[in-house]
Amino acid sequence: MNLDLPIFTDQADTTVSPQPRRFKRWLSELPMVNMGEATRLFFQTIQAFNRQSIPARIRLELMEQMRPVAHQAVEYLNKHFISCAFPLTGKNRQIEQLEQTLLQEMSIGYKLVVNEVDAHNSKLDKKSLLIATHRSMRYLEKSLQLSARLYTNPAATIWRDLHQLYEYAEQQKMTDLLVKDEEYLVIKESSIADVYKQNCLLALSDPNHLKNGAVAKLVRVFETASEYCEITKTLNPDNSGSLYITSLKSSEPPAYVTLAELTTFNNLRGISLSKLISHAESSLKSADQQLSFFNDLDADLLREILTTWTTHKKRYFNRAPANTRIIVATGIRNIVHAISKDNYPDLSPENLLKKQAIRSAGNSATSSIGNTTWNKLMTHSSLYSREVLDTSTPKPPPQPAPQLPESWQYWKLLNSSSGGYGLLWDNPSSSRAQVGEIVALREKENHQYQWRLGQIRWMKHTSQGALALGVQLISPRAIVAAVEDIPTRSYSTLPGQIIMLPGMKTRQQAPSILVPEKNLQVGDELALSLFGKQVYVKLTGIGEQPSFFTQFFYQSIELSENRKDKDNFGKLWDKL
């Protein structure tokens, strides 16, 4: 095997003894009430041990002693990512890198045991070899899960090591032997094949396209769902001549490919999801989802995973490369604010700033002491004005630099097509982006800037720490309207300002509105204020409804006068 392992060095820190009994005492004396300090000491020690030559049997005993402390340290670090913003910046970015390194060092410790047996024929019983192989893969799995949760790129060697360890387990006939693992959330034991399949399932679920928090739910479900996934040495393509495969000699995750793309069949394994897909479809149709291990997934997430596994989309729009900046507003409230503040749709952001600067200079030409007052002072005493006040033109107090509306953010436009955009956030601060969130982009059309509406479909961190994301175009126009009344029923609150989207015949998409709160319902008739006029619409259906917004389809209606106000006191009754 050619596993990713460090080089042993004579300069490794030997402050902590690698003798198991002494090391156990050292672990018990760690200051666990101060998790920051305990994590630092533990991290430095495992790094030192992994660069020392230690017999395989003793190293395995040391690693098993480390596991409880490693688990506590990882749980402590994970707390920093609750409700974090993306991209990760500053302290959060450093914590993510620390946790990734800690997980990989734990895997290295077990990989060193396996490598010692494989490369140097060290004596180790099969059960111990099984545990070392299983544990090393489990820590690689935790690293992949962390990357998936935080939209970061996994280390380049993780999949290569996973493939090699699985192939080694095949050769040793260990893939189906069970190992107890108390760190699972649902199950209590698993095999090497289970670990490998759990990793494959997560990769095939395309985590960069999932909303924040979805990966944690999938990890829990895949613990038991993996038994419905099969790894086969025979390759059985579907009706389109394609199949899911994994290559044990590559550094890549599993993929869906056509047989025509394959140049060799050596070391390939097929991944069959047919039983799992059938079980998931039955779970969606069943009235009692509690009978399924998919009960931890809401229906929308389960449908999304099924779509990913069964529908292999091809891009129908060519992306035109770009290298410019574009104004973006993220989230329905920011979009409403951004469009409302766009008073000069014919001006670029740069010219808007210039216009504001000129306006600010004009407003500040008269300082707190007006020109008339200055003239009077200089008339009364030329000496006073010359020596104290200075007869030169008075300098106005410094004005704040012109700024764009706070809801506007500068993003880098990587590429665009008629179907969407590729964006990059390379600023030092965090963005407002989340998968599934809506965004508005201020793009020039003819001689004016228009606000296009899109939805973030995927995002991931780049190697430089920036955040790249893909936006699917929802509508080429976005209009702000205000809900003034719901004449057909009583209500406690109104949504206020909403976003109206025109219908798109090319996509067979009906006109719709987006509202931030879920206080409307299908069948409501709304009185809207639009461009100073009052219009009436009826909500005919519901579209997407993630946690960020709710989409309603509508049709225009004519509201009779008696329905607007049956007794001239319609609006009064709700206030009494």
Question: How is the secondary structure organized here?
Answer:
Elements: H1 20-28, H2 35-49, H3 56-78, H4 90-120, H5 126-150, H6 158-171, E1 178-180, E2 189-191, H7 192-204, H8 214-225, E3 230-232, E4 242-247, E5 255-258, E6 268-272, H9 274-285, H10 299-310, E7 320-330, H11 332-340, H12 349-363, H13 371-380, H14 382-389, E8 409-417, E9 420-425, E10 438-445, E11 448-461, E12 467-475, E13 479-485, E14 497-501, E15 512-515, E16 525-530, E17 533-542, E18 550-556, H15 561-564, H16 570-573
Antiparallel strand pairs: 1-2, 3-6, 4-5, 4-6, 7-8, 7-10, 8-9, 9-12, 10-11, 11-12, 13-14, 13-16, 14-15, 15-18, 16-17, 17-18
Helix pairs in contact: 1-3, 2-3, 2-4, 3-4, 4-5, 5-6, 5-7, 7-8, 9-10, 13-14
